Amino acid sequence: MERVREIRPETVRTPMTQEVPVVPTTPATSPEPTSGRSRTRRRIRHRTRHVDRRSTRRTHRSTGGVVAAAAGALVLTTLGACGPAEPPPTPLPSPPAVATDLTGSGLTRADVDAWLDGTIPSALESGRIAGASVAVVHDGELLTARGFGEADVSTGTAVDPARTLFRVGSVSKTVTATAVMQLVDRGEVDLDTDVDHYTGLDLPHDHPVTLRHLLSHTPGYEERAAGLFLPPGQAVDLRRSLAQDPPAQVYEPGTTPAYSNYGMALAGYVVEAVSGMPFEDYVGQNILTPLGMTSSSFAQPLPDHLAQEVSQGYPTSDEATIDFEVVGVPPAGSMSATATDMARFMLAHLGHPVGGSAGTGGDTAILSDEALQLMREPALDAASLGALASGPRMGLGWFDESRNGRAVVGHGGDTLAFHSHLQLWPDDDTGVFLSVNSTGADAAALALREDLLDGFADRYFPADDATPVAVDPAARADHARALAGTYESTRGFHTTFLTLVGPLQPIRATVVDGDRVRFSPGVGIRSTVYEEVEPWVYQEVDGHRVLAVRTDDDGGVQLIGHDSAMSLTPVTPARAVALPGLVGGGVVLLLTVLAWPAGALVRLVRARRVRVRRDVRPADGAPVGPARVPRLVTRLAALAAVSGSATWAYVLVAALGMDPVPTAVIRTAQTLTALGVLGLPFSVWWTIAVFRVRSGRLRLAAAVMVVLGFAAFTFGAVELLLLSPDISY
């Protein structure tokens, strides 16, 4: 599943005593290409990318989100995959090993194998990634399935694309959407009916939410962290996880793309509520088993016969393993699957009947052709999205990832260790799936994934012509200047103390070349330059990404849509200064705290040297009597503010690293912050006292700085909701 980019502390892991070389393995269905072909092998370039995701080794984390919270009461049943007693699935049809050109574009088994051999092994080695699994389908057949590197570094177990399970993260959402569409196909649910009608949860929505909203990531929910991931062995209760502290609805449904793990989990619960069986059981019986995906499951923990085959996950190939990540909302990202099973799923979505168990006749279709087409089409139009409809739009569970002038739909997925992506080229009857089991050095897995997909597109489906620019130069320049500014993702926290994550990860747009716009990297967007090709529609220079901009009546930017389910909103002036104010004020107060013992030490030394009488006047020039009270309270409040800031830092890192945060710790942080805020009036009192006794300009200036420090700290704490009585997140 996609996750929230976040800030985490680095954790100490025991390094492997020996680095095992990465060796690609080739299954029987995909022999090594002959040495007679001499193509130039392009090596995937290693790039460092900003990752807003957790990298803390811990007991949980996996789809897109954040921290573990309340324990559930119901242990998941293990139905998602068939047991050993099931008859084997009908083998997927494979093309001959000879290099027969199937498309005229070079898309052959031999060429794909040669290309993969020339790209993935070197990327695994340089990026310190343990292993990868790939499947490519075309024209109703499994073109190739390949395993590279190791599923278990300690034992040297090689990745087998037909046996080794990878955690596919948010790619699971495409299966969840498929389950919903089966109910739509049968007339059991309607895409435009309030989901409360099906779930009975009676969630506190300001506006009705429909399945269309949920599957297109436009229900309007803010991000929710607590309960998204659970410690190993913790029971999962989907209904409880959805009903307990649901996220606030901060946007009108259908208007604002804002990726939501909670929303997709709610869609999965509709399947559970309407079908009358646990979600994992429904998927197993109605999707996985019919398609012969016998090595795949949403179950947590996996059944024994699959648990023995699941790949280990790693931060890097030379670090200790990461525990099996338990997703608290399974429909959003708990699936484990092999590459060949994902090939079956891709073929089914390309409209090819895929045989399940032997003897089924190979004519299993899990959805009607109409439903398959509906899932790939834009789910919403300009009536609700406005100008964002000119850019990429979500289908029902599928991202629009079109490129090179061709229609492409897909979905990525990330856990702490695993990084996956699935893409379908419906008009070209092609699909590609990739998963790796390590994040790698400097997030090398993300670079590998993106470069592999880009390389596949450019190699086999190259673009014909560049997109013509059809906007007046003067208008382009005006629009570029209007776009310049600071933004944050709509996929974020808005009503909880984690709202400070947005200002921590600002995305800046700057004008380059007079009429182009460069975006800094951030949540869901990479650092690159865009040019306007249609009014308020921007194309990535030398790339395939497209942005669409929604403006107000005065031409001011309201929203920038990107990646179908993501959008950016301008950072308000108050939010822009809140975090700098909080940090700057905290630094001033920290210096105040440090000056307290330092000043006492200096006074002690001076007193000993000049033998100052202590009963005449304090050595620091402060007035005697009641004025000592504001001075003491100011110093204590500064100490509380600094302690509160340190506690909040721990809470932030733990929550975004998906470690459980005790309620007592959050309340302690709030109490210390509140005591720090109370220092503001006492610091003003103290400053007035210093002024009245004419203690000198330097001392007065220091007192004024302390007042400003408290003021900035107070503003930041209030604006960033650090004092909110609601501590859900």
TrEMBL record:
GO terms for molecular function: hydrolase activity. Residues 1-11 have a biased composition (Basic and acidic residues). It holds the Pfam family Beta-lactamase. Residues 14-37 have a biased composition (Low complexity). Residues 38-61 have a biased composition (Basic residues). It comes from the Bacteria. Keywords: Hydrolase, Membrane, Transmembrane, Transmembrane helix. Residues 1-65 are annotated as: Disordered. The chain crosses the membrane at residues 63-81, 577-605, 636-658, 664-688, 700-723. Residues 117-447 form the Beta-lactamase-related domain. InterPro entries: AmpC-like, Beta-lactam-related, Beta-lactam/transpept-like. PANTHER family: BETA-LACTAMASE-RELATED DOMAIN-CONTAINING PROTEIN (PTHR46825:SF9), D-ALANYL-D-ALANINE-CARBOXYPEPTIDASE/ENDOPEPTIDASE AMPH (PTHR46825). This is Serine hydrolase. It comes from Dietzia natronolimnaea.
